[in-house]
Design brief:
single chain, 79 residues, mainly alpha, 3 helices, 0% strand
Length: 79
């Protein structure tokens, strides 16, 4: 059940991040951005000493990580 949980969190986080950043993307892109964003968000939360508990906490951390990922990719692309 763990991998399905990660996929669902990744899809939702990727979708929310795409809406926040105004990016148009398909389901697979949202999944990839959400899962990678969850890893980035978890890393950043660990550095800041923030713990995310429950579905909402994990979703927030994953979404923040996905937003950081999209922002970083746009920054690199603009250079």
């Amino acid at each position: 059940m763990g991998i399905i949980y990660w996929i669902i969190i990744g899809l939702v986080a990727g979708f929310i991040a795409a809406q926040i950043m105004g990016s148009k993307s398909d389901l697979l892109t949202n999944l990839i951005v959400g899962v990678v964003g969850a890893v980035i968000g978890g890393f950043l939360a660990g550095l800041l000493g923030i713990a995310a508990y429950g579905l909402i906490g994990q979703l927030v951390v994953a979404t923040v990580g996905a937003v950081v990922l999209i922002w970083g990719l746009r920054f690199i692309k603009s250079r």
